[in-house]
Amino acid sequence: MSDDSVTLIEVGPRDGLQNEPGELPLAVKQQLVEDLADAGLTVIEAGSFVNPTWVPQMADSEALFAAIARRAGVRYTALTPNLRGFERALAAGADEVAVFAAASESFSQKNINCSIAESIERFRPVMAAAAEAGLPVRGYVSCVLGCPYEGALAPAAVARVTGDLLELGCYEVSLGDTIGVGTAGSMRALLTELLGAFAPAQLAVHCHDSYGQALANILAAVDLGIRRIDAAVAGLGGCPYAPGASGNVATEDVVYLLEGLGLATGIDLDRLIAAGEHISGFLGRPSGSKVARARRSAG
Amino acid sequence: MSDDSVTLIEVGPRDGLQNEPGELPLAVKQQLVEDLADAGLTVIEAGSFVNPTWVPQMADSEALFAAIARRAGVRYTALTPNLRGFERALAAGADEVAVFAAASESFSQKNINCSIAESIERFRPVMAAAAEAGLPVRGYVSCVLGCPYEGALAPAAVARVTGDLLELGCYEVSLGDTIGVGTAGSMRALLTELLGAFAPAQLAVHCHDSYGQALANILAAVDLGIRRIDAAVAGLGGCPYAPGASGNVATEDVVYLLEGLGLATGIDLDRLIAAGEHISGFLGRPSGSKVARARRSAG
């Protein structure tokens, strides 16, 4: 990855759809994943192997992995909270898996029902099994710029869990501003701390646009050398028309930002917009991407 | 103005409402302007003295200036395209006026029906009358990062008209990304050119959020030393729910960005959000500010 290109990690089919009301037909999800690969995305988080009781939207992940026509050069990844989930992901043919921890103790307890330290221990067997199977593992850290229960987080707390995940064997850690409260100022403070200990290539950013700050935060990260960015086509995961919509930043809008900075993404924006409008149609609402809406309006 | 504070120029009552469908009762506009001053805005563009045939939404600007209870320390400003407009603004008691030119010849012709050079000549009598009356004059330049007819603009073309307006006697020039196509990359290129010729204090930025890039563009400008930023409460001027909504950047979201960067704005965000929700209610839609919607959703 050269310094003047950026890899987008498309999380719409998983982090996006997981937070949309209702369950979509398998064929619609399959089409979405295939459309995204056709648009040039090279890393697509397609599903999640968690207990379907907790996340019914992802109950069909096995079937989805079986259905999608794989495109060469694309990694189809999955979230795996534990060894059982990893085994399902491996059997389904995931190219990469991800584990997730939180930067805040309260969020860890409420979201995954254990302490941060316990969550790290829980990942050890997953890491061992992944190493044996030869699958790369990505780490997520949530609430890096603020927690709904604890408010602002100390960058040192984020550095600790990031270091734990990298030490466990994750090849990179995706820093999640889960509730979207971060600003360019807090993003810079966090990354300045982290880049004192880790290489830019070990870090990705995962911004939600709840407060409209996602692109500014991504700009701040890119300025500091980050070249791996999570995003969700059409801003999936939060309806653009609902008060307090808290979806992921829209991949289309990130592509527009990055290309404007002279950073290559390898993505065909028109095809990406079409993919986003297609899935938004199934969800019964316009695309959450402003670029998509502006392009459509400009005819 | 110290380096760690920013002045926001609130353009909602003029640039915002001018682009909203329908005409609001005078009392509603008066309440909006007064609410904005109460929230801490110190420069409020309250109206426009243009031909009411062209902009019926602004036909009541005299009445509005007469109605508003003035708050000490606040400048109530108005747009004045020509001497006739200036005389009306002066009689109405405007504290400051603004003239507007375009960076693109095509836009100038289609928007104000004359060439850029002719528009500058047309402003001379306004400048002379304003100097005599002791009123400061602000200059607007539209389409600085792109024109709907000509596409991308050369920074040198923007520098030319900016220089013309400053030479005429404008105390600052507001650089308008009228159609919102700019990116942090093009904003940086433009400002790098302009700051070779003009001081940061002579320049303001005026970003529209059509492509979702406004906050990233403002961050780019602030990083380069710009400390005067136009914004419209609730993102007035474009319905957040309409495809291709192309409103001004929401003042609330700019305040959130700036305070996060440690830049003081002097604005009470809660009061500002309330002012935006109030006017949005009259327009029959939720606030176009993501910060407002997120705060409301968080309870």
Automatic annotation (TrEMBL), chains A, B:
<protein>
    <recommendedName>
        <fullName>hydroxymethylglutaryl-CoA lyase</fullName>
        <ecNumber>4.1.3.4</ecNumber>
    </recommendedName>
</protein>
<keyword id="KW-0479">Metal-binding</keyword>
<dbReference type="Pfam" id="PF00682">
    <property type="entry name" value="HMGL-like"/>
</dbReference>
<feature type="region of interest" description="Disordered">
    <location>
        <begin position="1"/>
        <end position="21"/>
    </location>
</feature>
<feature type="domain" description="Pyruvate carboxyltransferase">
    <location>
        <begin position="6"/>
        <end position="273"/>
    </location>
</feature>
<dbReference type="GO" id="GO:0004419">
    <property type="term" value="F:hydroxymethylglutaryl-CoA lyase activity"/>
</dbReference>
<dbReference type="GO" id="GO:0006552">
    <property type="term" value="P:L-leucine catabolic process"/>
</dbReference>
<dbReference type="InterPro" id="IPR043594">
    <property type="entry name" value="HMGL"/>
</dbReference>
<dbReference type="InterPro" id="IPR013785">
    <property type="entry name" value="Aldolase_TIM"/>
</dbReference>
<dbReference type="GO" id="GO:0046951">
    <property type="term" value="P:ketone body biosynthetic process"/>
</dbReference>
<comment type="similarity">
    <text>Belongs to the HMG-CoA lyase family.</text>
</comment>
<keyword id="KW-0456">Lyase</keyword>
<dbReference type="InterPro" id="IPR000891">
    <property type="entry name" value="PYR_CT"/>
</dbReference>
<comment type="pathway">
    <text>Metabolic intermediate metabolism; (S)-3-hydroxy-3-methylglutaryl-CoA degradation; acetoacetate from (S)-3-hydroxy-3-methylglutaryl-CoA: step 1/1.</text>
</comment>
<dbReference type="GO" id="GO:0046872">
    <property type="term" value="F:metal ion binding"/>
</dbReference>
